[in-house]
Amino acid sequence: MAHDATANTRPSNNFLRELIADQSARGAFDGPVITRFPPEPNGFLHIGHAQSICVNFGLADYFGGYCRLRFDDTNPEKEEQRYIDQVAEDVHWLGFDWEGAIRFTSDYFPTLYEYALHLIKNGDAYVDELSSEQAREYRGDWNTPGTNSPYRERSPAENLDRFEMMRAGEFAEGTAALRAKIDMGAGNMNLRDPIIYRVRHASHHQTGDAWCIYPSYDFAHGQSDAIEGVTHSICTLEFADHRPLYDWFIEHLPVPAQPVQYEFGRLNLTFTVTSKRRLRRLIDEGFVDGWDDPRMPTLSGIRRRGYTPVSIRNFCEAAGVARTDGTVDVAQLEHAVRDDLNKNAPRAMCVMDPLKIVITNWPDDQVETLTASAHPDRDDMGTRNLTLTREVFIEREDFREAANKKYKRLVLGKKVRLRNAYVIEAHDVVKDDAGEIVEVHCHYDPDTLGELPADGVKPKGVIHWVSASFGVRATVRQYDRLFATPKPGNDASDFVDDINPDSLTIHNECYVEPGLVQAEPETRVQFERIGYFVADRHDHAPGSPVFNQTVALRDSWAKQSA
Ligand code: ATP
Ligand code: MG
Predict the structure, then answer these.
(1) For residue 474, how many other CB atoms are within 10 A of its CB?
(2) Domains of the chain, CATH where assigned
(3) From the CA of 63, how far away is ligand 1's center (Å)?
(4) Residue 511 in contact with residue 355, Cβ under 8 Å?
(5) CA of 39 to the centre of ligand 1 (A)
(6) pLDDT tens column, 174-224
């Protein structure tokens, strides 16, 4: 839905939104705002890409335009179909739909080739045959202007001929390149006769063996934008130095539109790495189980972790769009999902480290069905049934033989409430030969369902429990941050040295309340007193539950920002 661009309700943490609103108020462009999200299909999308997706789709949506999904596929060796499929899935999952069919830069290879011929004919490009080593020397550096290549003054006719030979496969890789003829003395290195076509004898996932020359990113990107009628070509700051080149091509080519590039600051997160190169290393070196390991900051990883699309979109909106690169506290991302799940996840009980309670005054075969609300503040979510039996499991850490007043759980000779059920009092413990407690014997007070005990004294604690006979055995994976330091690899150390060795704890003998036995994969719940969990997308099945911890209950970000 389009917004009134002049309305003053727009939040001020997105300078691009303001800029486009101003342009639109001035009538600086007519027609819709057209953007694109341009991933390279060489890995999975991560949380930084989510920001770019939200910016591109968000701006188009805000101004009533549209956004395309275009794969920037000029690097055939590094790209794969499975990454294309995954990106499409992730963008949809995040809640966005692109205009029309998926586009590929490779769709435009024929046009880009024509554009290259156009430059050559105008004397604006030449085939260079310096070796890559020589080319580096001729290029100069920040302090030294470059030197013109001896091939720079070839005639258009000769260049056309040589370029045709490149295309026909008559050059080995690295022996010839088409370069734009701009300025070897330019202060901006990107303008020192940048390469626009390279020889690459590689098969391409879209175009097969049709080409053995491939355009550079710089040559392909802006022209693809122009072909698609993109009005705002939004990218991250590292491309700011490329903008003069972007503009140069648009000026020197017969393109159908005049897109303009805008840059914003990359989103980085504490305790997280977000470069595909680094993420790939985590996989290759076995630190995680793959691109969608729930500890990965990839969209498919955090999805498996239980994050919701809306929580990620809210996080990106709150992080804003800045003119400089920034680092956001990962606690803010955790806060966003906790906030969403607190409002929307049904409650359930799960015992992670079971200790058996025997209610000695409960008849052996008595089974009582109790009712509890699915969510304390959400009547619309209805109720759930709990099954209470003579034997129940509680958390081992919820019982002590003796404890001081600060311990508000079950203590020998003291009372506690079983959540959503009765008050019990512990009167005996049974230990094994090693002295470990294997059972706690309790009495329950049958008059305490929703009522105080007769003495009117409120038990000092409430603990969760699951019936030992009806509870469903489950595997629960608890995750901690993958890195132990806020800026992995910051102290000139290798970033993998900062990996947290305890980022995953698997609990194989947990018990969840019987109502969860039919839960489908990706069901999200709050396990009361523990945290938010999701039924694993791949490993969970009704009847053999596997839950991943999304985030703990405690909110360090809310505390910090309060
Ligand atoms: P990486 O360095 O992680 O490999 P990339 O920039 O090479 O990322 P692309 O597939 O080329 O990955 O990126 C697609 C789009 O996503 C680009 O427009 C890029 O600017 C944007 N993008 C990538 N990382 C971030 C980030 N951390 N914050 C915001 N936008 C990002
Ligand atoms: Mg890239």
Answers:
(1) 25
(2) 15-101+219-269+306-334 (3.40.50.620), 109-215 (3.90.800.10), 343-347+472-561 (2.40.240.10), 353-467 (2.40.240.10)
(3) 23
(4) no
(5) 7
(6) 999 999 999 999 999 999 999 999 999 999 999 999 999 999 999 999 999
